[in-house]
Design goal:
Strand content: under 5%
Largest sheet: none
Structural class: mainly alpha
Protein name: Inner membrane protein YedI
Keywords: Membrane, Transmembrane, Transmembrane helix
Low-confidence stretches: 11-22, 122-131
Helix content: over 70%
Order of helices and strands: HHHHHHHHHHH
Number of domains: 1
Distance between the termini: 112 Å
Number of strands: 0
Length: 330
């Protein structure tokens, strides 16, 4: 009896060690997969604060929370099921779907650039954003859908050789970790001015001075993040399109950017890695801006034409109808 119990305990110990090793392997794989998507994670964290800029202080964290919950829904209800099924049965569709998302990011970024140039934001846009939180959150969640899809597909590519169950577990870990990381950082960013205000009221002169400096600096930081967020949309969107086109057999643009990156890398010595990355980023953003501008132009023409037609139709229905005198006599 004791020998059988000892054997059972040995088996349990072996299983426990195997499970621990599996957990370690999954954790390492999740960390590796997540690190590959770090660039998009930074972009996501830079994009989101612009959606809460100008809101009342007490509404900032609730809005960030709603966007974070929307991000989790994006990942678990849309992105994970779609990419896992496609990776299992129709992997060829992943790239075109990503490119559609990339084109949407380019459109969003180019639209923001055009709005800034044309001063469309000078007509009470801030008040509208404060008054319509539902629209604000919906726009942020739509943008998050594309950025989250990019994060998850990059992560999926890193664990493509794993079994289906391992891929699922790893991607769930990545989804939760990235959401906490991004929206935790966003929450800290948008509340830093409140932190500065609290510090400025403390008795220590140095702490109070630091708090006042933090309060003064945050508007500039948020303005900077708005610019970075718009640039990130164009960069990530353009990069998705470049890589996707290359994977679909259209190599010219991707190879041209790659050659520019290599030339910049080789010409700048110790700074080659940074300079090469900057060249690739700028080139991707330019591609994104061009594609986005084309989409904005098409949407603008289509929208204005539809709007003009609708207004003309409405005007036609508002015209008074002619009255037949003979009919009135009857």
């Amino acid at each position: 009896m004791s020998a059988g119990l000892a054997a059972l305990l040995d088996d349990v110990a072996v299983l426990a060690r195997a499970a621990a090793a599996s957990i370690d392997d999954v954790g390492l794989a999740a960390a590796k997969a997540g690190s590959k998507a770090a660039g998009v994670v930074i972009d996501d964290a830079a994009v989101t604060p612009q959606y809460v800029r100008g809101l009342a202080a007490e509404r900032e964290l609730p809005i960030v929370k709603r966007i974070a919950l929307g991000s989790l829904r994006n990942k678990f209800l849309i992105i994970l099921p779609v990419i896992l099924v496609l990776s299992q049965f129709l992997p060829v569709l992943l790239t075109p779907l990503l490119m559609i998302g990339g084109a949407y990011l380019c459109y969003e970024g180019a639209e923001k650039v055009w709005a800034k140039i044309a001063h469309h934001d000078a007509h009470g846009a801030g008040e509208e954003r404060q008054a319509d939180e539902k629209t604000l959150v919906s726009g942020a969640i739509r943008t998050d859908l594309i950025l989250s899809a990019e994060i998850m597909v990059i992560s999926l590519n890193e664990v493509a050789d794993e079994s289906f169950v391992s891929r699922l577990v790893i991607l769930v870990i990545v989804a939760i970790a990235m959401t906490v990381l991004v929206y935790g950082a966003v929450g800290l960013i948008v509340k830093m001015d409140d932190v500065g205000l609290r510090l400025s009221q403390l008795p220590g002169a140095g702490v109070a001075r630091f708090g006042r400096g933090l309060v003064k600096a945050m508007p500039r930081v948020l303005t900077f993040l708005t610019v970075v967020g718009t640039a990130a949309m164009l960069w990530v969107g353009g990069h998705i399109l470049l890589v996707g086109a290359d994977e679909l057999g259209l190599h010219f643009l991707y190879e041209s950017v790659h050659h520019l990156e290599e030339a910049a890398h080789d010409a700048t010595g110790a700074l080659g890695g940074l300079v090469g990355w900057l060249v690739n980023t700028i080139a991707s953003a330019i591609v994104g801006l061009i594609v986005g501008a084309v989409i904005v132009a098409v949407m603008s023409v289509t929208f204005h034409r539809s709007k003009a037609t609708a207004e003309h139709t409405d005007a036609g229905t508002d015209e008074p109808k002619a009255v037949d005198p003979a009919a009135s006599d009857r």
